[in-house]
Amino acid sequence: MAGDEQHHLQTSSTSDAGRVRGQRDRQMRNPTKASRPPEYMALPAMLQALPKSQASVLSITTRTSTACSVIHFLDGSSLTFVAHQLIPKLNNSLGTFETGVDSLDDNSTETQLSGMVSLARKQLRQVSWCVTVIVVSDDPVFLAAFAKWSLKGRLLVWSTRLLVVTRLQHSQMQRLFISHWTFSMMNSVILNNEESSALGRCIAYVHTPYSPVGSATKRVASWTTNRGLMLESSLTLFPEKYLNFYGGVVNVTALPYTPHWVEKQTTDSHGITTTKYSGTDYYLLATIAEVLNFTIHVLPTKSWDEVAQRVEERVSFMATVFHNVLPQRLGRYDYSYTYEYGSLDFSLAVPALRPQWQSLYYPLSDWVWLAILVTVLIIPQVVSALSRAEVWCGFDKGLTLGPASVVVTSTLLSQNLTRYFPSSNASRILITSWLVFAFIVGTVYRGNLTAALTLPKYPPRPETLQELVNTYDRITMPPFGVEFIKFFTQSDSTLYKALGERMTIVPSVIEGLRQAMEHKEAHVAGLRYMEQMIARHFSNPDGSPRMYVGRESLIPGIAAWPLPHDAPYRSQIDAIMMAVVEAGLYEKWSEDMLVEARRESRLKQRDVAASEVQVEGNTRALNMIHMQGAIFLLLLGLMAATLSFMIEKASFILLNRNPV
């Protein structure tokens, strides 16, 4: 793009309104050197007073420029002649946008400005980080429309300087400052021609929303034909507005979201209810407020949508609570410095210990049980064979296979040898070896059995997204999950699509966790918040959790605070947030909140007896779930004995009725 090239968006209208101008306007169209209006000569002086060190990063002209680039917006009125005379003299001029003289009604002005702002932002402002926008108009309707569309079209950022050249009454200028974010909050100056002055004076005004006297409009400079440009205050032409808020009130929005934002209401003796705030994000906000010297005012909101909506409307300066950074949200608002890893995780109920009679079987592996069974079958036969050999040699009267089996089984169960005492060396060696074997096996089994009963084997639990999708048909999320569900269902991943199809919205995280405990469901929310809720509401009296968080995250993303688009105070907020995070304060606050939640949960449940676990000192009592295997084995033995007794009795009756 050539440096002298100008971009004109020239429009016209068939209306005759606005064509009649006064004598002053006709003089401006054909000015002599003596009759040039003050703004004609004040504007170059203002531009020359701007800092020259802030040059555009990208060269958009055919020659090097040491000043910021300039974009002009003109309304086609007589005052526009000033700009037309000056534009050729500005070497760093990027473009000029002009509306028709006859089209200054509300609708056509907004229509033209919407196209102008869009074109200026895309083709001019975004290619240069340092831009000065000059708006030339004496029509309040045009200036109000420019303020509206420059905000909607995101034309201005804080590094963009806005210079409005006009000749309005002081009351009209004040209304512009008060009514429009563009003029009051952004980096803007109004150069107004004071027509009442006989000296032909132009005064530069700037609005400071925060000052020692509150919101105020201040004169920063004046220009006269005799003295030229004179600064009239300690402020520069484009002063920094957000280094000190001087105790001013700053509106923010947030909802309780532990551990980031916690609200606790207290009532004093006079019946006055006050809300006390805490949490990691509140501590971060309080630190920012202390550094920038402002007073926090939390706007009442009822939903997360309203929290973000107040930021979009610029009623709230920021939503000071954890928000995941998602691409689809960038169309609604900007984000602050990303101060937290905003992982989205799933939580499930800890699998219950199912009653299993196999608890007596778990202490040893299958191969060990098989080896013991084979040994128990072989050893009685060997003992019986040695016993018959002893009888043949005259050592003993011997044991048959039945008594030998009883001896082997009883010693395996740690019983004594009451019916058999080996008399030969071979029998003694065999029995000694068997006793050592039985002692080792019994000791190992009893030890492992104790461990298996006190630390039972729990069923496997889902830890990954694939396991979650394969196991659960219903997954819940709190109200803010609407955007996540839409994001998942539109994903190209079959896993995330299946995840989104299973998701439904519940009123709160607490309700989602409760449903996950009572039904076969999973709940998805922020990691830190779920850890806090589990520690507070879903823990046993001994501190063990009844729910767990899966090992794999759904979205291991980042989180920040929503800010209005192109917020002029963002750089100050980001700098303080970065300092807090890098100092480790935010992580320390998070750890303290979790420790406090666990401590409160233990105190709350200290006197409450658990339904399944009784805690007495350091001893854990075994319940029916642990001992079911032994009881089941006993009942099985009783049933087998009863059946055997009935068979023997029936056989006895039958034999007595039919004697041989």
Question: How would you describe what is shown here?
Answer:
With 660 residues, the chain is of the alpha/beta class. The strands form 7 sheets. It has an 8-stranded mixed sheet with strand order 2-1-3-4-5-6-7-8. Strands 16, 17, 18, 19, 20 and 21 form a 6-stranded mixed sheet that branches. The longest helix is centred in the C-terminal third of the chain and has 34 residues, at 624-657. The chain starts with 22 loop residues before the first helix and ends with a helix. Residues 1-35, 52-67, 80-84 and 609-619 have low confidence and may be disordered.
Topology diagram in text:
Elements: H1 23-29, H2 38-48, E1 69-74, H3 80-86, E2 93-98, H4 106-123, E3 131-136, H5 140-152, E4 161-166, H6 170-179, H7 181-184, E5 188-194, E6 201-208, E7 216-224, E8 228-231, E9 248-253, E10 262-267, E11 273-278, H8 280-292, E12 294-299, H9 304-312, E13 318-319, E14 323-324, E15 334-335, E16 343-349, H10 366-393, H11 401-412, H12 425-454, H13 465-471, E17 475-477, H14 482-489, H15 494-501, E18 503-505, H16 509-518, E19 522-526, H17 527-537, E20 547-549, E21 555-556, E22 559-560, E23 562-563, H18 570-582, H19 585-604, E24 615-616, E25 619-620, H20 624-657
Parallel strand pairs: 1-2, 1-3, 3-4, 4-5, 9-12, 9-13, 17-18, 17-19
Antiparallel strand pairs: 5-6, 6-7, 7-8, 10-11, 14-22, 15-23, 16-19, 16-20, 16-21, 24-25
Helix pairs in contact: 2-3, 4-5, 8-18, 8-19, 10-11, 10-12, 14-15, 17-19
